[in-house]
Amino acid sequence: MPTYDSTVEKLVKYLVVKALAGHGYAVQAVYEHIVNEISPSTLAYKYGMSKHQLRGYTQRVIEKAGSEWRAKALLRLLTPYILRVKPIIVVYGDGKAYCSYCKVEIPITKIEDHVRRRHKDLVSVIMRKILHEVTAPKTIEINKAKYYAF
Ligand SMILES: [Zn+2]
User: Fold this and answer.
1) Three-state SS at 92
2) Is residue 140 within a helix (H) or strand (E), and if so which, with residue range?
3) Domain ranges, ordered by start, for the chain
4) pLDDT in the model for residue 93
5) Residue 147 burial (CB < 10 Å; 0-12/13-18/19+)?
6) How far apart are alpha carbons 82 and 129 in whole angstroms?
7) How far is ligand 1, taken at its centre, from the CA of residue 76, in Å?
8) Taking a C-beta distance cutoff of 8 angstroms, is the pair 108, 96 a contact?
9) Helix orientation angle between 24-34 and 68-82, rounded to the nearest 10 degrees
10) pLDDT at 143
11) How far is ligand 1, taken at its centre, from the CA of residue 88, in Å?
């Protein structure tokens, strides 16, 4: 059995890879499907992906989270942070993409593989930063001044 932390780390890494690869729309689609319970056919149309792809992503997120309700809770918490991650991949549109991080051209079908394999350290750093932000004390506004809420 994986520990709570390693499961969450794996899920965050999976989502960070998608965001870095420029596939933030896939994270958004999975979020809308799992959290807002919008049908796969509606989302497939909205985000220009197949229902099959969306089901695959959803299944992987649920697997990594451990259960559907945990996936729901974690996505609700994590998605705003994930969607703030800037993609490192630029897509040319002719089946090719460019990694602005290591300055190489990669086939469009290998984008996520490239990010996962070549930029493991970057993915880990962003994953830790997100987990730190998620667990950091939140600031709240009182009389226009910021106080820490404990
Ligand atoms: Zn690269």
Assistant:
1) coil
2) strand 139-142
3) 4-148
4) 76
5) exposed
6) 11
7) 29
8) yes
9) 140
10) 59
11) 8
Q: Which residue in this structure is represented by tokens 């989502």? A: 15
**Cβ–Cβ contacts within 10 Å for residue 87, how many?**
17
The pLDDT score that the predictor gives to residue 46 is 96
Neighbours of ion ligand 1 (CB under 5 A): 99, 101-102, 118
According to DSSP, the β-strands at 104-107 and 139-142 are unpaired
Task: Output 115-124 pairs: Cβ under 8 A, ≥24 positions apart.
Answer: 115/17, 115/20, 115/21, 115/88, 115/89, 116/17, 119/20, 119/88, 122/20, 122/88, 123/13, 123/16, 123/17, 123/20, 124/13
Q: Is the dihedral of CA 133, 139, 144, 145 positive or negative?
A: negative
First to last CA, the chain: 32
Amino acid (1-letter code) at residue 124: S
**89 CA to centre of ligand 1 in angstroms:** 8
Give residue 42 CA to ligand 1 midpoint distance, Å. Answer: 33
Average pLDDT across each block of 10 residues of the chain; the chain has 150 residues. List them in order: 70 97 97 97 95 96 95 96 96 90 94 97 96 82 56
Residues counted in the chain? 150
